[in-house]
Inverse folding.
């Protein structure tokens, strides 16, 4: 079991514990805001399961039907997470509307607040772990799960403030109002997760800083080649696909040009872990930007 899968499995365990704690807080108080908070935690469990399935799928090797691998499975999982966040927001809005029409008093508020605070702290710590590890290991599923938990933390803080205000002011309808405001925040966050994850499914290019490193690596490892051009990149989970054309002198042997390609591929894989490199070798009458006395120059002529 790889590290990402271990973290995702741990996330499922944490989500189940948090769900239990939050539901206990709701039972103690009868607060619709705390109930809404617990309702969102059910989505945490579902998204943790989705992350586990996605990471397992993404780790599968290429096969006859998926010759470029299964790396995009994590993006699909992240989109599912975003959709589930939106569903949770709509469910919270529904509960808030019902409570607005028929507000009820909150029982044992301080006990419920203490229990819910415990769950909130646990979620805050674990969301930080997920986001940090997800970015380190380039796991879209872990990052999405961590961001969802972070939204849950904000939700919980808003709910706690709402319950305190209800207790201090005696205005019971504030319970529903705070739940509705939190739901709107959750709705916006869910849309953000969907938008960010969809970019990976659309073969978005490598970010600017990463692209700069790729260009520098190519420029310093072209050897006797004339130039490179038509650089294209795309992300698929942990993998970065890199493609470009390499122009060599017409007199250069196939063996020599192959050595240059091998050196470029090794250098790029050292620069970017998990890079998959495709190089198209062309004769010298094909350059796009010939620069005199600059062998191995990089022509920025993407597209």
């Amino acid at each position: 079991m790889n590290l990402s899968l271990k973290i995702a499995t741990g996330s499922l365990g944490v989500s189940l514990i948090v769900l239990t704690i939050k539901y206990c807080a709701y039972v103690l108080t009868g607060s619709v805001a705390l109930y809404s908070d617990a309702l969102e935690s059910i989505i945490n469990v579902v998204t943790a399961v989705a992350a586990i399935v996605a990471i397992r799928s993404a780790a599968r090797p290429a096969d006859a039907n998926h010759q470029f691998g299964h790396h995009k499975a994590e993006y699909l999982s992240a989109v599912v997470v975003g959709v589930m966040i939106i569903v949770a927001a709509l469910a919270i809005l529904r509960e808030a509307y019902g409570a607005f029409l028929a507000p009820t008093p909150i029982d044992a508020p301080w006990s419920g607040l203490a229990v819910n605070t415990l769950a909130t702290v646990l979620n805050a710590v674990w969301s930080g772990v997920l986001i940090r590890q997800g970015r380190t290991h380039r796991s879209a599923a872990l990052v999405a799960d961590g961001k969802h938990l972070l939204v849950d933390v904000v939700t919980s803080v808003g709910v706690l403030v709402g319950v305190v205000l209800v207790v201090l002011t005696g205005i019971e309808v504030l319970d529903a109002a705070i739940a509705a405001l939190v739901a709107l925040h959750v709705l916006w966050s869910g849309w953000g997760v969907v938008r960010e994850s969809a970019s990976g499914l659309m073969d978005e290019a490598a970010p600017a800083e990463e692209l700069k490193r790729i260009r520098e690596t190519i420029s310093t490892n072209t050897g006797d080649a004339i130039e490179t051009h038509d650089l294209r990149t795309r992300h698929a989970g942990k993998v970065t696909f890199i493609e470009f054309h390499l122009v060599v002198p017409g007199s250069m042997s196939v063996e020599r040009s192959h050595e240059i390609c091998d050196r470029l591929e090794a250098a790029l894989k050292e620069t970017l872990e998990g890079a998959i490199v495709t190089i198209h070798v062309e004769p010298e009458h094909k350059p796009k930007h010939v620069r005199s006395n600059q062998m191995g120059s990089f022509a920025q002529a993407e597209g």
